[in-house]
Amino acid sequence: MPELPEVETTRCGIEPHVLEKKIRSVELRERQLRWPVPANLGDLVSDRKVQSVGRRGKYLLIDTGNGTVMIHLGMSGSLRIVPGKTPAEKHDHVDFRLQDGNALRYRDPRKFGSIHWIEGDPMDHPLLVSLGPEPLTGEFDGDYLFRQSRKRKAAVKTFIMDSHVVVGVGNIYANEALFRSGIRPARAAGRVTRQKFELLAFNIKQILAEAIKVGGTTLRDFIGGDGEPGYFKQSLNVYGRGGLPCRECKSILKEIRLGQRSSVYCSQCQK
DNA sequence: ACGAAGCCCTGCAAGC
DNA sequence: TGCTTGCAGGGCTTCG
């Protein structure tokens, strides 16, 4: 389940292997993802040289000069570099064959991901144009969250997971950031104090930055490996620990559902 | 404008 | 052991 740190780790991992490289051809084995992959993607990018590998939220942006390939990994997707002859396995849907003999391989068992072709400025694309700020920039802080949340009755956890508020805060890190900040996930966003939002914004940045840092140490796995950054083993305080004792105060962690997402919190530590 | 619910898909776990 | 059922999950879309 790629969250923003995994997407950024993926971006860093593939960048040195595709930047300035020419795409020779594209093999589409499965076009039915979240949205259909353009059938003529191969024609559009063949013989094009990759100009940059960017990211906006959880969308990867591969600029080929005449347009941009926009890739989302959904929750089970991965992108990795494989030697050209590596046989495709069951869920390996797309290969971008590179001039150097390697291929950039897209795998996505659950097909929640997507691949778009964008001409013109990718930031004008409907899926990107109304996204909230990047969490690791100065634009995102406690004051921003406070201002955006006034009169909002939605649960604060749902609020910070809304990509129109801020991008890249998935379920796992939302749970963890709220725990660290001492805020109950179900609390109405409009009733969270400015001070608590300062803390929350700080913790979101901290957690995402930590995860990206750890992900960076496993970059070698991107070549030929399974493409799974190993940082996931990091100890989580609440996510996946419903019914278990809180690591801080030992009381039993509660698990509820908010917006159809599992939410775990400590009723002692979080108010 | 906001919020709640629905939907897409597959692997895995639990139940029989 | 093998089959069936249920569920998780990102995020867009639809409906109220």
Number of helices: 7
CATH architecture of the largest domain: Alpha-Beta Barrel
In total, the number of domains comes to: 2
Question: Helical content, roughly?
Answer: 25-40%
Q: On the 0-100 scale, what is the average pLDDT?
A: 89
Strand order of the largest sheet: 1-6-7-5
Uncertain runs are 217-233
Describe this structure in words.
By secondary structure, the protein is an alpha+beta fold. The protein folds into 2 domains: 4-129, MutM-like, N-terminal (N-terminal domain of MutM-like DNA repair proteins, Alpha-Beta Barrel); 142-265, Helicase, Ruva Protein, domain 3 (Orthogonal Bundle), CATH 1.10.8. 26% of the residues lie in helices and 20% in strands. It has helices at residues 4-18, 41-45, 126-129, 142-149, 156-160, 171-181, 194-216; strands at 23-28, 52-56, 59-63, 68-72, 78-83, 92-98, 102-107, 114-118, 254-258, 261-265. The strands form 3 sheets. The chain has a 4-stranded antiparallel β-sheet. A 4-stranded antiparallel β-sheet has the order 2-3-4-8, with helices on one face. It has a two-stranded antiparallel sheet with strand order 9-10. The chain binds a DNA duplex (16 and 16 nucleotides) through loops.
What key phrases describe this protein's structure?
271 residues, 2 domains, 4-stranded antiparallel β-sheet, 26% helix, 20% strand, elongated, DNA-binding
